[in-house]
Design a protein that fits this description.
Number of strands: 11
Largest sheet: 4 strands, mixed
Helix content: 25-40%
Shape: globular
Strand order of the largest sheet: 3-5-1-6
Distance between the termini: 27 Å
Radius of gyration: 20 Å
Order of helices and strands: HEEHHHHEHEEEEHHEEEEHHH
Structural class: alpha+beta
């Protein structure tokens, strides 16, 4: 939870020590340019579970929890008789029992955290600290000690997990936007487009990101877009979208076209805001919700929230 990919020894962090994850990367593949598809808890996990973008299914923010209506890979695994475990002490247990070489392990996080960068804390932005996540895979059939620069996102995990479990994709699953990580790991690095969107708390407008790890374009429905050269400005301090050099205009137009191939940001923003307005009305209106306060977490399906 909330683990930025910048906070990994195997990604070059010399302050924070991550020996277990570094060891996992050493015997597997480290996808250096991995992103979540929405940098806030519930939406990020909904995408991770279903392999679908928010703009296809909803679950726009933490007040709109994933209810299982859209099929998840968890359900598909359970239906096939498989088990899923969290990583915790599992890595040591696998080593101790001699099972590490025949067990596939995949590590990621729901999203990152700004951790004070640019004076920001928490997630909820499309900067690398917040949108970037670890993605490490090790086990049978996985190259050892390989670093992949091709961007990947959480929508790629659905196919990866079903493929690992030997479950054949149905026709609707074949149309999902992701690609199995095995396929990406075996291919040559490429400028693949990663997509991320945000509609949650603190946002007055939808935010949409496309990045190929060389450049990043961030589009806001009601604000000026941002454009970053991640190679020459990895800390995203020089926004080329504020007053773009004529040489960048063509690039900005290209990345905006990449965004439009994925979704219509204006239409998606309107859908998200409409759903959020419906939720506010159903809970007594904006002022009533503010007066009642924040619950701090989403309740499980069919469980009523208790604010007392």
């Amino acid at each position: 939870d909330e683990h930025s990919r910048k906070i990994l020894g195997c990604n070059g962090n010399g302050v924070v020590k991550t020996p277990n994850l570094d060891a996992l990367a050493a015997r597997g593949v480290n996808f250096r340019n991995a992103y979540c598809n929405s940098p806030v808890c519930v939406p990020a996990r909904a995408v991770f579970a279903t392999g679908q973008y928010l703009n296809r299914m909803g679950y726009w923010d933490n007040a709109d929890p994933y209810d299982g209506e859209v099929t998840s890979w968890h359900r598909r695994l359970r239906e096939a008789g498989h088990q899923v475990v969290s990583i915790g002490k599992v890595l040591h247990a696998l080593e101790d029992t001699g099972l590490s070489q025949n067990t596939r392990v995949i590590y990621t996080s729901d999203h990152g955290d700004n951790l004070g960068a640019r004076g920001l804390w928490g997630k909820s932005t499309l900067y690398e600290e917040s949108a970037g996540v670890p993605a490490i895979m090790a086990g049978p059939g996985v190259p050892k000690g390989k670093v992949v620069e091709t961007p990947v996102t959480h929508v790629d995990f659905y196919q990866t997990i079903l493929q690992t479990a030997g479950i054949e994709l149905n026709e609707s699953e074949k149309k999902l936007p992701g690609t199995a990580l095995d396929v990406i790991a075996e291919a040559q690095d490429s400028p693949r487009i990663a997509f991320c969107e945000y509609h949650g708390m603190g946002s007055t407008t939808g935010a949409f990101m496309v990045s190929d790890a060389r450049y990043k374009y961030v589009f806001y429905v009601d604000y000026s877009a941002q454009f970053f050269d991640l190679k020459n400005d990895p800390e995203e301090l020089n926004d080329l979208g504020v007053d773009p050099d004529p040489a960048n205009v063509e690039l900005i137009e290209y990345y905006h076209s990449c965004l439009e191939e994925i979704c219509d940001p204006y239409a998606i923003n309107a859908r998200a805001k409409s759903r959020q307005a419906q939720q506010l009305d159903a809970n007594g209106g904006r002022e009533k919700v503010i007066e009642r306060g924040d619950l701090g977490f989403s309740t499980p399906p069919r469980v009523s929230a208790d604010f007392s």
